[in-house]
Amino acid sequence: xxxxxxxxxxxxxxxxxxxxxxxxxxxxxxxxxxxxxxxxxxxxxxxxxxxxxxxxxxxxxxxxxxxxxxxxxxxxxxxxxxxxxxxxxxxxxxxxxxxxxxxxxxxxxxxxxxxxxxxxxxxxxxxxxxxxxxxxxxxxxxxxxxxxxxxxxxxxxxxxxxxxxxxxxxxxxxxxxxxxxxxxxxxxxxxxxxxxxxxxxxxxxxxxxxxxxxxxxxxxxxxxxxxxxxxxxxxxxxxxxxxxxxxxxxxxxxxxxxx
Amino acid sequence: xxxxxxxxxxxxxxxxxxxxxxxxxxxxxxxxxxxxxxxxxxxxxxxxxxxxxxxxxxxxxxxxxxxxxxxxxxxxxxxxxxxxxxxxxxxxxxxxxxxxxxxxxxxxxxxxxxxxxxxxxxxxxxxxxxxxxxxxxxxxxxxxxxxxxxxxxxxxxxxxxxxxxxxxxxxxxxxxxxxxxxxxxxxxxxxxxxxxxxxxxxxxxxxxxxxxxxxxxxxxxxxxxxxxxxxxxxxxxxxxxxxxxxxxxxxxxxxxxxxxxxxxxxxxxxxxxxxxxxxxxxxxxxxxxxxxxxxxxxxxxxxxxxxxxxxxxxxxxxxxxxxxxxxxxxxxxxxxxxxxxxxxxxxxxxxxxxxxxxxxxxxxxxxxxxxxxxxxxxxxxxxxxxxxxxxxxxxxxxxxxxxxxxxxxxxxxxx
Lengths: 259, 415
Ligand SMILES: Nc1ncnc2c1ncn2[C@@H]1O[C@H](COP(=O)(O)OP(=O)(O)OP(=O)(O)O)[C@@H](O)[C@H]1O
Ligand SMILES: [Mg+2]
Description:
The structure holds 2 protein chains of 2 kinds.
Chain A: E1 3-4, H1 10-20, E2 24-33, E3 40-50, E4 55-60, H2 66-73, E5 94-97, E6 100-101, H3 107-117, E7 118-121, H4 133-144, H5 149-162, H6 178-189, E8 196-200, H7 208-223, E9 227-231, H8 235-239, E10 243-248, E11 251-257
Parallel strand pairs in A: 4-9, 4-10, 7-8, 8-9
Antiparallel strand pairs in A: 1-11, 2-3, 2-5, 5-6, 10-11
Chain B: H1 2-11, H2 14-53, E1 56-59, H3 69-73, H4 98-107, E2 111-126, E3 129-138, H5 140-146, E4 153-156, H6 160-163, E5 167-171, H7 172-178, E6 185-190, E7 195-204, H8 209-212, E8 215-219, H9 220-226, E9 235-240, H10 246-257, E10 261-263, H11 264-267, H12 269-307, H13 309-317, H14 322-357, E11 361-363, E12 367-369, H15 377-404, H16 407-414
Parallel strand pairs in B: 3-8, 5-7
Antiparallel strand pairs in B: 1-9, 1-10, 2-3, 2-6, 2-9, 4-7, 5-8, 6-7, 11-12
Helix pairs in contact in B: 1-14, 2-12, 2-14, 2-15, 12-14, 12-15, 13-16, 14-15
The structure holds adenosine-5'-triphosphate and magnesium ion.
């Protein structure tokens, strides 16, 4: 059974989130990709909040703007400031990550925020092939610099162990199977205990068995309170989330709670 | 951590990295070797020249600096100036009151020694051999203070000029051409009709070929008689406390004495110019080698960047900044540069020592056994810094390009 979440005005939503402490908040998000003739208004004013501990799936047709939204939510991309006529959007497009207005941050500060608060998983694993599984997972911790080298490696080992890769810590990334590589990538996204895990079609390159493995991992992470926002074309996978957001033509057309 | 990533990246292309390092090493080595050789040759030439010809020479002529009167009237450079009935002046040139002048010069602060000389040409005949000698009449005691000629004798003794009434000390080249040996008597005659039979009491070798093949030393008095320049001193040779300062001292002395006073640098300006050109050539050749090495670095880094686009995107996605990415690639250039240049210093030093020991017989402008290699610490510093700078410059472009990749575009492109 599904419930419709009532959608109020952007300002009303903003006030609510300040009180509730949403982990992610998008206000009137616009994104225009390309320039001139090829310019494409990909997101047309998306408002969205993601609460702590929530597990959200974003679905929608190809080209509806799911990835674009995810990159913006994770601070990997920045919203467009004005429309094609040069008029600023009202209210201004903003993304808040754990309460922090990302528009106020420099590129370096935004990178640091991603390092601390966001964990990305993509369709492709993007592991550094010269490094072992354990080192790949430790890299974001090295960058953060809170742990010593030894501590970071130990934590990386634990994370991999939890994902069933305890026996392959020292294996070079390019000598793991596709499913194993994707699990290493998930462990890496979790390295710095991110406020939210953002996954763009994490099972897109995997076979049925490995896809189910990843879906199980996500479910168990969500159960432990990890906030997750994922994009997927897999209906079954999406239904395991607590909330499903449906996109079409750069806008949210459905926002449903699963039960 | 950045260094670690750089190192891993480099070691995943060991062969290309080694070739790159070798390129830098070779360029540094070649620079060191060429520079040492050029400098060794030049140092030798300078020392031999300075030591055998003195630091400063005062000639018995005014400096021909004034433009001739006719040229003032017809300044066009190609004007044909014809002077009718100008009589060459027969007047014998000389330095006036040389003893007084020598005493005055000796008082000067930087002057160490002054040697009076009379110079002129004479024809030497020994058996069937004949050649023109440039005669230098000297006081042997003074001459040994102004130049190191006393130490350059292969046979005989310079001081014997004084003891032997008609002695002559000839260059070893002169001895070779004439076939004369120590103790042989050679005939000398001058253009003014003077002639004498002189006994070879010494054979010298300065190492400066033109000198060794033309010069003969005689006692001042004997030379004056032979050259028909009774009591005439037409040249004073000076030794100063610092040969590098000779031009300044020479200018000072010239303004004081009024005779044309030449430092060794001025007399050898042509050679010094050649050396300067040599330096430029050395820098161009070794500079070109370094540029080639730098292109190697540029090439390997551009490849590395193109290969790592995905890595760059993901590193940025989890928090690496542009600067971090830049350093990952600049570090690779630095590692190649430092390793290559460091090895280059060691191999270069080795190469210099090998060249130094090569049994090469040289007899050109200067004569030497083995290649003359002269080193100084600065050349090592220069080579290292230059190699490092060049590789650093070569790594900046690829590194900046790496840093400029937009992770979103990369990640979209991969799908
Ligand atoms: N550089 C660009 N210039 C213009 N349009 C672009 C550019 N990149 C992407 N787009 C367009 O933006 C739209 C949204 O892309 P996005 O990747 O967000 O879609 P998606 O919902 O993730 O699709 P998929 O399910 O296929 O991954 C698409 O229509 C795409 O063609
Ligand atoms: Mg997508």
